[in-house]
Amino acid sequence: MKKLIILLILVIFLVSGCIQQPTTQRILESAKVIKVIDGDTIEIDNGDRIRFLHINTAEKGERCYEEAKQRLSELIYNKTIWLERDMQSLDQYGRKLRYVFLNYNINPENYGGFVNLMLVNEGLASVLIIEPNMKYKSVFDSMTKNAEGCLFEKSPYFKCFSIQKFNYDAEGSDCDNANDEYVIIKNNCEDINMNEWIIKDSARHVYVFGDFILKYDSYFILHSGSGKNSETDLYWDETGSCPVVWNNDGDSLFLRDSDEKLVLFYNY
Question: Containing domain of residue 164, as a range?
């Protein structure tokens, strides 16, 4: 009996060792690109519009718009591509939200030909990750740490500024307490006139500075809500039912000079 039990255990072990555990693969669909609308939106041969997941590129008239659109055209216009969806299929405008690949790459750990990621790596797109679509969040977040390229062309004032505190999650309800959503930024160089400088996030929120001089070794606090500007406190004056700017689950801050060159970049 003892020998029989041992034999059965060996058989079970050998059989289980031969069974291949299923691996998670990308599920891809093919399409042909008939139009490149901008750096993160295309039209395919069945008439659907595709909005690239995890990224955001410049709008028309903004810095790096033409460069992003041209590069995307070089990569995929009039070519067959492969599309992968995440949790959410469509955005509020009816566009399909997709990851885009140059080839049939079903290995979830292989990022070769991953167009969304290529545009970030080349400094033509910023990372914009919106729940519930989180599949490649860690990969895209790590890519921004050493980003270079058009969006990251540095200003002469680069490294002059530092973030002292970033309170992107206001106490209580963000929508009801927008002024408690703020960032404190310090000037470590000589007095600087920040007229026409901008601060923006990964989406479409943009704050434009007026004739504001930040003195050496001084700081300002930029609140998302409304109020009266002073030498230290500035207000974004966001409008709408929920006047907030920064995502609680991750965002990027860009501070740019009047030539739209990068002064400070912070990603969390």
Answer: 154-267
Does residue 3 lie in a domain region? Answer: no
- CA 9 – CA 65 distance, rounded (Å): 65
Q: Are 155 and 259 in contact (CB under 8 A)?
A: yes
Task: State which of 129, 151, 173 marks the end of a domain.
Answer: 151
What's the total number of domains in the chain? 2
Burial of 165 (0-12, 13-18, 19+ CB in 10 A): exposed
| Token pair for 10 | 């060996």
pTM of the predicted structure, to 2 decimals: 0.82
CB 224 within 8 A of CB 244: yes
Q: What is the pLDDT of residues 64-109, one digit of tens each?
A: 999 999 999 999 999 999 999 999 999 999 999 999 999 999 999 9
Cβ pair 187, 198 in contact under 8 A: no
CA distance 134 to 23: 19
Q: CA-CA distances (angstroms) from residue 239 to 27, 178, 222, 226?
A: 40, 11, 15, 9
Do 89 and 197 lie in one domain? The reply is: no
Q: Are residues 229 and 161 in the same domain?
A: yes
Give yes or no: residues 175 and 138 share one domain: no
